[in-house]
Amino acid sequence: MAQLTVDIPNTSVPRVRQAFAKRYGYRAQVDNPAYNPNNATSPTNQPTIPNPVNIDEFIRRKIREHIRDIVVAQEQEDAQLAASGTIDPNLGIT
What we know:
Blueprint: H1 13-24, E1 29-31, E2 48-50, H2 55-84
Antiparallel strand pairs: 1-2
Helix pairs in contact: 1-2
């Protein structure tokens, strides 16, 4: 499998993380699916928990999705263009 590597200078990493988080809605805390509002809030019953997906994995996923979306969109456009060339617009209607 081919790999694509992007080198980001250490001084730019915080900016990249912040931009992806804001642009794509990453949250460091997420709703706790086990939270029970009928019980008192406690260390084991919190409304939010740390996001199990860290910011770096979130960024990698967004990059993969972006690449996939570009490829699919281009292949769909190519298929439409190829199909349009096979249609005979002459219906013989007089």
